């Protein structure tokens, strides 16, 4: 913030680290004493903040002055925008998925039962979006969000029933449902290491991911849709588990 001459407050919610920021006067330090989950930790930061724009930044994402200036400027001139986000890239410059369509039964079935074949085919024919100007998307990956305070006041905090993952999809859905726009801005990139706070285990073992997706369909769909989604997820997990065992036997 010093480089950009923008006044703001830095709030660190320390879910579980070995480093203390308590002695730094320019930082608001919050220690929940335990790992409360991603949503709860972010909510603690939001509740203790006072700015017109709240920036949620993952511990493995790195803010730049350019992103800070562009994000704040965009929200100050677009009252209908609920969240603005820069493009996310890995440390080596490779692009990440920074936005996505909201989940449907179709893309859930494609991912869990058909290994994303439909999505890969669609991306092949349509190509990745390279719009030079900010554009509206259905959901934003929650590694770096600039959130309009008015939108927070209207919509509320993150749903703490989501311990880790899918809370960003749920919040995107709630934003969109209330008429706010979600803005992806590829004019600026920031590095997001990705999964730096997680153990690197196989996809089917990521229980938070799968339970979060079930919860999303429980909240947003009918009982029938939720039941189908749950069965698709459980079946997909079992397929991956069996394939993993099979591959291990071959080796």
From TrEMBL:
Gene3D superfamilies: Spore Coat Polysaccharide Biosynthesis Protein SpsA, Chain A. Pfam families: Glycos_transf_2. Residues 9-154 form the Glycosyltransferase 2-like domain. InterPro entries: Glyco_trans_2-like, Nucleotide-diphossugar_trans. PANTHER family: RHAMNOSYLTRANSFERASE WBBL. This is Glycosyltransferase 2-like domain-containing protein. It comes from Deinococcus sedimenti.
